[in-house]
Write a structure and sequence with these properties.
binds S-adenosyl-L-homocysteine, 7-stranded mixed beta sheet, alpha/beta, two-stranded antiparallel ribbon, Rossmann fold
Length: 222
C-alpha cells in the first residue's frame, strides 16, 4: 500500500496543529510559509522503506535501518524554521540518515552539505537525493562532530542526532549572524533542542526551545 496526497495533506495539518499546541515553547504560532511549502513538496514516502510507505506521512519518526530513524515531520519543519533559511544560504547538516531533512533544506537554500557517520546510509541517501534531482545537496561519509571545514563558514548548521554538548568546531564554523540548531542531552535521557546564535560581534548566545528525543550523535566511524 502507498501513501496518498490526502495522507500528505494530513501530515501538513498535523504539523500546523502541533506547532499551535507548542506555540509557547517555540515562541510562534505558525512556521515560515517557505518551510511549509518545502514540507508539502518533498516526497517523504521515498525516504522510508517500501514496507513503511503507507505510513510515510504519519507525524512520527520511522525506522531507516542500522538502528536509526527519520525524524518526525513536525521536528523536521520546526528545525528548518529555526535555521531561518534564505534562498542564498549555504548550510551544513550533521546526520544525513535517509536524506529527508537534507531534501527539505535543499528546497529552501542554495547549497546543503550533509555528513553521515554510517557509510551505508550515506551512500543510500546520496543516491536517493540524486534520483530525486537534489543537485544542490552534497553528502559525505564521516564524523560530523568536526563539521566540514573545507566549506565553512556556514549560514546555518543543523544537527539531527543528540550530542552530549555543543561541538565547538560547529560553533566555530558558523558565520556571524548564523544559527546552529541542535538537540543536546543524553541518549534515551533528557534532551533539549537548542538554538545557538553567533552574533555579529562573534559572541554566542544559546536558548533551549523544546524537549526532544533523538538518536545519539556517535563518534566512531562505521
Ligand atoms: N536527518 C535524518 C535523520 C537522522 S537520524 C533524516 O532526515 O532522515 C540521525 C543520523 O545521525 C543517523 O543516521 C546517524 O547515523 C547519524 N549520526 C550519528 N552520529 C553522527 C556523527 N557523529 N556524524 C554524522 N552523522 C551521525
Amino acid at each position: 500500500m502507498s501513501a496518498t496526497t490526502a495522507d500528505q495533506e494530513a501530515m501538513l495539518r498535523d504539523i500546523i496543529e502541533e506547532v499551535a499546541v507548542t506555540r509557547h515553547e517555540i515562541g510562534k504560532a505558525a512556521l515560515d510559509q517557505r518551510v511549509m511549502a518545502a514540507m508539502a513538496k518533498v516526497p517523504r514516502e521515498r525516504f522510508v522503506g517500501t514496507y513503511d510507505r503507507y505510513r510515510a506521512f504519519v507525524n512520527g519518526p520511522l525506522p531507516i535501518g542500522y538502528g536509526q530513524t527519520i525524524s518526525q515531520p513536525y521536528i523536521v519543519a520546526l528545525m528548518s524554521d529555526l535555521l531561518q533559511p534564505r534562498a542564498d544560504s549555504v548550510v551544513l547538516e550533521i546526520g544525513t540518515g535517509s536524506g529527508y531533512q537534507a531534501a527539505v533544506l535543499g528546497e529552501l537554500v542554495q547549497q546543503v552539505y550533509s555528513i553521515e557517520i554510517i557509510s551505508a546510509l550515506a551512500s543510500a541517501a546520496a543516491e536517493r537525493l540524486q534520483e530525486l534531482g537534489y543537485d544542490n545537496v552534497t553528502v559525505r561519509h564521516g564524523d560530523g562532530y568536526q563539521g566540514w571545514p573545507e566549506h565553512a563558514p556556514f549560514d546555518g548548521i543543523i544537527v539531527t542526532a543528540a550530542a552530549p554538548h555543543i561541538p565547538p568546531p560547529l560553533v566555530e564554523q558558523l558565520k556571524p549572524g548564523a544559527r546552529l540548531v541542535i538537540p543536546v542531552g543524553e541518549p534515551g535521557g533528557i534532551q533539549e533542542l537548542m538554538l545557538v546564535e553567533k552574533r555579529a560581534d562573534g559572541s554566542v548566545s544559546r536558548r533551549g526551545i523544546l524537549m526532544v528525543a533523538f538518536v545519539p550523535l556517535t563518534r566512531a566511524q562505521r
